[in-house]
Design goal:
By secondary structure, the protein is α+β, with helices and mostly antiparallel strands. The chain is built from ten helices and ten strands. The strands form three sheets. Strands 3-8-4-5-6-7 form a six-stranded antiparallel beta sheet, covered by helices on one side. Strand 4 and strand 5 form a beta hairpin. The longest helix has 18 residues. The protein is globular.
Length: 244
């Protein structure tokens, strides 16, 4: 196991370090507990990887090991197969298809490709089952695993801020202004913005938009959090200056 400890905090530098084979990347300044936690994390990951040495089906609990960690283990061992995610009641929620350790496609509900993977990466409860075999499926994902995993983590972090901005997820949302800040339009594609704003104009709540947008739930939540932060969208009955 290898851990980078660097003054370079730019995400591009972190991605480069991880692509070089690092298991973890820490940014200075740091405290001792950061290093201890990182060492504990990579050692546990190394132990889990030993379970993938034989070509056998693998089953696990998502509350104990995340989809991102599972993907990293499969990539480390260059396995091919189908990774199914199941709900706590054992209903299949989606699948990730892998060729020699690289993700080539994912399916979640009506989504496929990258957005489906981001949707599945947000699942915290339930189970996974990996069938080691040659999966015959079209290649709809061309990005490297590390790029996908970092984007999934970014979306999850940004989506997590939505709860702190909206005290009531079931309240209808409204447009506070039609002025679009330049930085928002630069970060978010026109198609994605249009899809979310159309749902806001129809009087949907945050929960309804996240569930019904034609994109992954983490992306929809991330965009909503961004629009609320810049004052474009607010809950019905609140003004932009009111606390969430």
């Amino acid at each position: 196991p290898f851990i980078f400890l660097s003054v370079k905090s730019d995400p591009v530098d972190q991605l480069k370090g991880l692509r070089m084979g690092a298991d973890e990347y820490l940014v200075k300044p740091f405290v001792a507990v950061d290093i201890l936690e990182a060492v504990d994390k990579v050692m546990k990951k190394t132990e889990r990887m030993k379970g993938l040495k034989n070509d056998v089906d693998i089953v696990g609990n998502l509350s104990q090991i995340s989809l991102i960690d599972v993907i990293q283990m499969i990539e480390f061992n260059e396995k091919s197969g189908e990774l199914f995610l199941l709900s706590p009641s054992s209903d299949v929620t989606g699948a990730v298809y892998i060729q020699e350790g690289q993700i080539v496609n994912a399916v979640s509900g009506h989504l496929d490709g990258e957005e489906a993977f981001y949707d599945l990466a947000a699942q915290k409860d339930g189970f996974f089952k990996f069938y080691i075999r040659e999966a015959v499926v079209g290649d709809k994902i061309g990005q490297e695993n590390m790029t996908l995993l970092m984007e999934a983590s970014r979306l999850a972090d940004e989506a997590g801020s939505l709860g702190s901005r909206l005290s009531e997820m079931e309240s209808p949302l409204v447009l506070s202004t039609s002025d679009m800040p330049d930085d928002v339009s630069e970060r978010i594609s026109a198609e994605t913005l249009s899809g979310i704003l159309d749902l806001v104009r129809s009087g949907k709540s945050a929960a309804e938009i996240i569930a019904g947008a034609n994109m992954s739930r983490p992306r929809a939540a991330s965009v909503l959090a961004d629009l609320i932060h810049c004052g474009m969208v607010t809950a019905q009955g609140f003004s932009p200056g009111d606390p969430p």
